[in-house]
Specification:
Oligomer: single chain
Number of helices: 10
Structural class: alpha+beta
Largest sheet: 4 strands, mixed
Strand content: 15-25%
Bound molecules: flavin-adenine dinucleotide
Distance between the termini: 37 Å
Shape: globular
Number of strands: 15
C-alpha cells in the first residue's frame, strides 16, 4: 500500500516546527547572519520546546521519533534559516554514530545527557587535508592499555565551538586506509582538546564551524564507537541516515526562495503589468514548484526507507543530490525574479542563495553522490531489460523476418539483424567478422 498522507501526530509536529520557525528563527536569522554568530538563544529554545533531538530513542530518554518526522521538522526550520537549521540538527549528525554503535553502555551513559541536560555532540571525520575521502583521514589513535591516545586535527566541524562531545573518526594506521579507521566519543573538555577560531564563511553564518586539535588526548576504550576496521562503515552508515535530512534542508530553503519569488512577482510591475504576467516568470515559478515537490518526495522516500529498516544508502544519495541541487537552482532563479533587489541584502534571497551553496558540499559533495549512484548502477543495479545483444524479435511483427524457417543473427557491434541458416561472413553495415554475430531468440506467433 502506498500512502503519502501524514498522521495527525506528524501533521501536529510539522505545525509545531513551522510555528517555531516563523516565530523564533525567521525574525533573527538576518541579524545573526550579519554578525556571523550562532543564535544560541534559539538553540536553547529549540531544545526546551523539543524541536531538536527528536530522534533519541525512548529507552535513552528521547522522543523516539523517526527520520521521516525529522525531515518534517528540518524542512520548516531550514525554510526560515538554513544556517540555524545546520546548527540545530548537527546534534543528530553527531549522535548518529552513537545510535548506530554496538556500545550499549556508552549509549546509556551519554544519550540521556543529550536528551535531558542540553548536551551537544558534533561530528568529526573531515580534516584539513581530506573531506570526501574518509579512508584517507590521518588523525591517529594509538592503543595504550585501557585507552587510545588521539593526535591530529579535525576541520570544518559544525558546532565544534559549542559542543560538549564529539564523535571523532581516527585511524590506527593511515596506510591501512579503510581497515584502520575507528571512532570514539570524546568529551570536549578532556585535556589536549583545543578548538580553533571560528572559520569565516560565505553563507550559513548562523552555524559555527571550527577546527579541533587533539594533542595526546587520552580516550578510554569504554568510549569506543567503532573498533579499528569498523569505523569507515560506521561513517557511511551515519551518512545514509543523515543525508535525507540534508535533502530536507534543500526542500525547506528552496520552498522559501520560491515563496518569496511568487510574492515579489505579483507585486513588481514592468511594462505596465505585474511581472507575474510574463510567461518567462511564470515558467520559472512552475519549475521551482515542480523541483520542490519532487525533492520532498525523494526526501520522504529515503527517510521512510530508513525508518523501515531498509538499506537507504542509494535513496539517501538520490535525495541529497537532487534536493540540494534543487535548492541552489531555485534560489538562483528566485534571485533572477527579484533581479536588482535580489542582489541586495535588503531581501532574503541573497542569504538563501549563500546558505544553500553549502548543501552541495557537506555530508558528501554532489560529485560524491554521483560516484555512489554510478557505482550502484554499474555493479549492483538489477536491470529489467535483457542485454542489447539478447533483445528478442517477434517473427510476425518483424518486417524483415518473412523467412519463417530461417534463423536470425544479430551483430553485437552495430545491432544489424541478419536472417539465414548461418551468420554472414562479415556485417554489411560495420564490417565486423562473423564472430560478432549472435543468434537471436525469436518469439513465434
Ligand atoms: C561549513 C561546513 C561545515 C562542515 N561540517 C562538517 C562537520 O560537522 N563534520 C565533518 O566531518 N565535516 C564537515 N564539513 C566538511 C565537508 O563534509 C567536506 O567539506 C566535504 O566532504 C568535501 O570535502 P573537501 O572540502 O575536503 O573537498 P575534497 O574532498 O578535497 O573535494 C574537492 C573537489 O573534488 C571532488 N571530488 C573529491 N573526490 C571525488 C571523487 N572520488 N570523484 C569525483 N569528484 C571528487 C569534490 O566533489 C570537490 O568538488 C563541513 C564543511 C563545511 C564547508
Amino acid at each position: 500500500m502506498l500512502d503519502f498522507s501524514l498522521t495527525p501526530e506528524q501533521e501536529d509536529l510539522r505545525q509545531k516546527a513551522r510555528r517555531f520557525a516563523l516565530e523564533e528563527v525567521l525574525p533573527v536569522a538576518a541579524y545573526y547572519d550579519e554578525i556571523d554568530q550562532t543564535p544560541l538563544p534559539v538553540i536553547q529554545k529549540a531544545y526546551d520546546e523539543g524541536i531538536i533531538n527528536i530522534d533519541i530513542p525512548k529507552e535513552y530518554g528521547g522522543q523516539g521519533l523517526g527520520l521521516l518526522e525529522a525531515t518534517l521538522v528540518v524542512e520548516e526550520i531550514a525554510a526560515a534559516c538554513a544556517g540555524t537549521a545546520t546548527s540545530l540538527f548537527d546534534n543528530s549528525l553527531g549522535m548518529e554514530p552513537v545510535l548506530l554503535s554496538d556500545n550499549e553502555a556508552l549509549k546509556k551513559r551519554y544519550l540521556p545527557k543529550v536528551a535531558h541536560e542540553f548536551k551537544k555532540i558534533c561530528f568529526a571525520t573531515s580534516e584539513p587535508t581530506m573531506g570526501s575521502d574518509v579512508s584517507g583521514l590521518r588523525c591517529r589513535a594509538v592503543e595504550d592499555g585501557d585507552d587510545y591516545i588521539l593526535n591530529g586535527t579535525k576541520y570544518w566541524i559544525t558546532n565544534g565551538g559549542l559542543a560538549d562531545y564529539a564523535s571523532v573518526f581516527a585511524t590506527i594506521d593511515p596506510k591501512s586506509k579503510h581497515e584502520g579507521i575507528c571512532a570514539f566519543l570524546v568529551e570536549m573538555d578532556w585535556p589536549g582538546v583545543r578548538v580553533g577560531r571560528t572559520i569565516p564563511k560565505m553563507g550559513q553564518r548562523c552555524s559555527n564551524t571550527v577546527g579541533i586539535n587533539f594533542k595526546d588526548v587520552r580516550v578510554p576504550k569504554a568510549n569506543m564507537l567503532a573498533p579499528p576496521g569498523k569505523g569507515f562503515v560506521l561513517a557511511m552508515k551515519t551518512f545514509a541516515r543523515t543525508r535525507p535530512t540534508i535533502g530536507a534542508f534543500g526542500v525547506g530553503a528552496a520552498r522559501s526562495a520560491m515563496e518569496h519569488a511568487i510574492d515579489y512577482a505579483k507585486r513588481r510591475k514592468a511594462f505596465g503589468m505585474p511581472i507575474s504576467g510574463f510567461q518567462a516568470i511564470q515558467f520559472k515559478l512552475a519549475e521551482m514548484y515542480q523541483k520542490v515537490e519532487t525533492a520532498r518526495l525523494l526526501t520522504w522516500q529515503s527517510a521512510w526507507e530508513s525508518d523501515q529498516g531498509k538499506d537507504a544508502n542509494i535513496s539517501a544519495s538520490v535525495a541529497k543530490m537532487y534536493a540540494t541541487e534543487t535548492a541552489l537552482e531555485v534560489a538562483n532563479e528566485a534571485l533572477q525574479v527579484f533581479a536588482g533587489y535580489g542582489y541586495t541584502k535588503m531581501f532574503p534571497v541573497e542569504k538563501i542563495l549563500r546558505d544553500v551553496r553549502l548543501l552541495r558540499i557537506y555530508e558528501g559533495t554532489s560529485e560524491v553522490q554521483r560516484a555512489v549512484l554510478a557505482g550502484y548502477l554499474l555493479n549492483a543495479y538489477k536491470p529489467v531489460m535483457p542485454a542489447l545483444e539478447d533483445l528478442p524479435l517477434h517473427r510476425e511483427l518483424d518486417p524483415l523476418g518473412d523467412k519463417a524457417d530461417q534463423k536470425a543473427w544479430r551483430c553485437r557491434m552495430c545491432g544489424h539483424v541478419h536472417y539465414g541458416d548461418e551468420a554472414p561472413e562479415e556485417c554489411p553495415y560495420c564490417f565486423f567478422p562473423q564472430s560478432a554475430f549472435k543468434e537471436v531468440k525469436i518469439k513465434e506467433a
